[in-house]
Design a protein that fits this description.
By secondary structure, the protein is an alpha+beta fold. It has one domain. A hairpin with a 2-residue loop joins strand 4 and strand 5. The longest helix has 21 residues.
C-alpha cells in the first residue's frame, strides 16, 4: 500500500470516528488538545505515557490521533511503516496513553486528542 493510500485510509477512518462522536452527542462539549508523548528508551513495540489534564474524568471520551510530520523524528512515513497506533484511557485528572507498533520505537510522538465529557 502506498503512502498516499495509507493517508487516504487514515483520513477516512478519522471521518468515521468524528461522525461517531457527533452521533453520540459529543459536539458542543468537546475540545481538542495536543501532547507530546516521550518514549525515552527503546520500547519493544509497546509503551505507556501519562499526561495530566484536569478536565479528564474516568467517564471522559477521548479520541487520540498521532500527528505525522515530514522530515522529523518519527515522521509520517515512519509512523505508517511501523503500524504505530495510539490509544487513550481516561483517568481522574489524567490520560493514560498507550503506544503500540510493529517493532521497537523511541523518541517523541505528537498526539492531538479530542476530549468530551
Amino acid at each position: 500500500m502506498t503512502l498516499e493510500a495509507r493517508i487516504s485510509a487514515l483520513a477516512t477512518a478519522i471521518g468515521t470516528d468524528i461522525k461517531a462522536l457527533q452521533a453520540a452527542g459529543a459536539v458542543g462539549d468537546a475540545a481538542v488538545a495536543s501532547a507530546v508523548l516521550n518514549v525515552p528508551t527503546l520500547a519493544p513495540g509497546y509503551a505507556e505515557v501519562v499526561v495530566t489534564n484536569a478536565a479528564v474524568t474516568p467517564a471522559s471520551k477521548i479520541m487520540p490521533l498521532l500527528v505525522g510530520e515530514l522530515d522529523a523524528e518519527n515522521d509520517l512515513e515512519e509512523l505508517a511503516d511501523s503500524g504505530m497506533r495510539v490509544f487513550a484511557v481516561p483517568e481522574a485528572g489524567q490520560i493514560h496513553f498507550v503506544l503500540t507498533g510493529n517493532g521497537p520505537f523511541t523518541g517523541d510522538f505528537k498526539v492531538n486528542y479530542q476530549l468530551a465529557n
